[in-house]
């Protein structure tokens, strides 16, 4: 039967693995998105604004996913290893900061706050 120290070590390694996954996803997405963006710019000389917008969206989504995974790692580490009030308050502050960062990224990428619906597109009518 595993000892308590083994269980603690396993949880610590799990949290570290989750953090490394988040970092790997962010870095890989930045690299792949940048290569794709540069290739599109090299081949396609028109529509640069659309290419840039797609590039920004890819980067924003990678950051959002990375932030969510990092929050999960913090939750695993705090709940399993350090359930003191100080640790829980620190976790709460981290979650608040990362939530604000996520909202900021959503606003930057999508153009509206996460809790608001996207603006309806007004379709032209055939009224004469």
From TrEMBL:
A Pfam family it matches: DUF1622
Keyword Transport listed? The answer is: no
Name the InterPro entries for this protein. Answer: DUF1622 (IPR012427)
- Kindly list the residue ranges recorded as spanning the membrane: 20-41, 62-81, 87-107
Alphabetically ordered keywords of this record? Membrane, Transmembrane, Transmembrane helix
Is the keyword Transmembrane in the record? yes
Q: Which PANTHER family match?
A: SLL0939 PROTEIN (PTHR38468)
User: What's this protein's name?
Assistant: Membrane protein
Q: Which organism is it from?
A: Stenotrophomonas rhizophila
Lineage here is: Bacteria, Pseudomonadati, Pseudomonadota, Gammaproteobacteria, Lysobacterales
């Amino acid at each position: 039967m595993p000892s308590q120290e083994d269980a603690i070590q396993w949880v610590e390694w799990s949290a570290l693995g989750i953090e490394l996954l988040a970092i790997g996803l962010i870095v890989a997405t930045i690299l792949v998105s940048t290569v794709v963006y540069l290739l599109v710019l090299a081949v396609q000389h028109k529509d640069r604004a659309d290419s840039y917008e797609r590039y920004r969206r890819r980067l924003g989504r990678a950051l959002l996913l990375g932030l969510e995974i990092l929050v999960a790692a913090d939750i695993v580490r705090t709940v399993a290893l350090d359930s003191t009030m100080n640790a829980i308050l620190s976790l709460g502050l981290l979650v608040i900061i990362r939530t604000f960062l996520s909202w900021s990224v959503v606003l930057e990428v999508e153009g509206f706050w996460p809790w608001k619906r996207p603006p309806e597109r007004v379709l032209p009518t055939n009224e004469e």
